[in-house]
């Protein structure tokens, strides 16, 4: 029987091919096609077009009714790659800057090994998910009946983590990734000559006052014992030096773990915008979008993941959640499970996620495959 170590060289080649041909949200046609092809070669039952471009492979063995789901995300980021690697992106403005190419390779490797070893009793569902980067591919798969068609006792997702050294695996019960909200505030006056400001409500002045107030929400309206982030990331307004613009747009993001804190911050943004609008004689319109909920691990599933991780690498209890977001949260709202970090930092250091110089560390591919296999073998142990 082929050992996992023997699978790694072709998996590296597959990963680098995916890296060279990145595809954005809901456009992962080549990627999904290559995945489906590989799963069929392994003899798995294959379902395509779930969540628009998602792929599910089903592997059954034995007689147990128990089942487990494993997820890998497939999409790339709208970034220009700057690695100068021989397998760098051939699609300008498309880049696997978050390691989803590595996640696909690890999950395929686990499917290859389990299809040959059959060291489990039950059903494994391999979920290859589109559109994780801000477009809610997991939500689309769940809406289309993912867990009705492919029921799971547990669902797990593994994500590479450059903040942890290679060889380490970490997770935690409860919150592990933040809820992601985005907001846009449009301040609208009339516009007019900059030399006659008394006749023109000043949207820029109102925007400046509002930015100052918004940056005080977390420090003054959220308890010091709670965790939250509010960042202003864009201000747009004006076209020339002698015109007070008609409108200014402010936008940004909010990250939280607690829905009550989330409610408090959204209400504060709306209150402050209305107050500044009234004081500055401009109209303030707030658009607030809670696009990803917090990623909340089930306590038993997190413990199960740590126990499986300890059999293949150095398992760590993550002390704190991260404020970055993850749409695997939608799967965890529908099924008990856990999100797991796989350390990938090299001794000399690694570029962070979403950085144009980032690359997935192929040295952790084998550990990632072994982790997926351990999760299956632990949950679907024969005779359990």
UniProtKB/TrEMBL annotation:
**Native organism:** Sphingobium fuliginis (strain ATCC 27551)
InterPro entries on file: Amidohydrolase, Bact_exopeptidase_dim_dom, Peptidase_M20, Peptidase_M20_dimer
Query: Per UniProt, which keywords does this protein have?
Result: Hydrolase
Q: What is this protein called?
A: Amidohydrolase
The Peptidase M20 dimerisation domain sits at: 182-274
């Amino acid at each position: 029987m082929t050992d996992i170590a023997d699978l790694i060289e072709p998996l590296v080649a597959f990963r680098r091919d995916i890296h060279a041909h990145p595809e954005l949200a809901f456009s992962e046609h080549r990627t999904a096609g290559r995945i489906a092809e590989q799963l069929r070669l392994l003899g798995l039952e294959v379902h395509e077009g779930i969540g628009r471009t998602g792929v599910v492979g089903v592997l059954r063995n034995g007689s147990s009714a128990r089942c487990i789901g494993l997820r890998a995300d497939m999409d790339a980021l709208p970034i220009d790659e700057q690695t100068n690697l021989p397998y760098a992106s051939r699609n300008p403005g498309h880049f696997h800057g978050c390691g989803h190419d590595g996640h696909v390779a690890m999950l395929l490797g686990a499917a290859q090994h389990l299809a040959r070893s059959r060291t489990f009793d039950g059903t494994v569902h391999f979920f290859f998910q589109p559109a994780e980067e801000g477009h809610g591919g997991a939500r689309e798969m769940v809406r289309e009946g993912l867990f009705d068609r492919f029921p799971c006792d547990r669902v797990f997702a593994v994500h590479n983590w450059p903040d942890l050294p290679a060889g380490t695996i970490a997770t935690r019960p409860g919150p592990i990734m933040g809820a992601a909200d985005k907001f846009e505030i449009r301040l609208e006056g009339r516009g007019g000559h900059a030399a006659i400001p008394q006749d023109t409500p000043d949207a820029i002045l109102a925007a400046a006052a509002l930015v100052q107030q918004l940056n005080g929400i977390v420090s003054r309206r959220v308890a010091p014992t709670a965790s939250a982030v509010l960042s202003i990331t864009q201000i747009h307004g004006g076209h020339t030096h002698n015109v007070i613009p008609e409108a200014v747009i402010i936008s940004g993001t909010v990250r939280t773990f607690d829905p009550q804190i989330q409610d408090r911050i959204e209400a504060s943004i709306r209150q402050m915008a209305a107050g500044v609008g009234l004081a500055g004689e401009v109209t303030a319109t707030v658009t607030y979008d809670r696009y990803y909920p917090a990623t909340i691990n089930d306590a038993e599933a997190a413990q199960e993941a740590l126990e499986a991780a300890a059999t293949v690498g150095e398992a760590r209890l993550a002390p704190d959640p991260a404020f970055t977001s993850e749409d695997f949260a939608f799967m965890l709202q529908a099924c008990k499970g856990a999100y797991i970090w796989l350390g990938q930092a090299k001794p000399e250091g690694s570029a962070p996620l979403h950085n144009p110089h980032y690359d997935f560390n192929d040295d952790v591919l084998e550990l990632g495959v072994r982790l997926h296999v351990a999760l299956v073998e632990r949950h679907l142990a024969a005779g359990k």
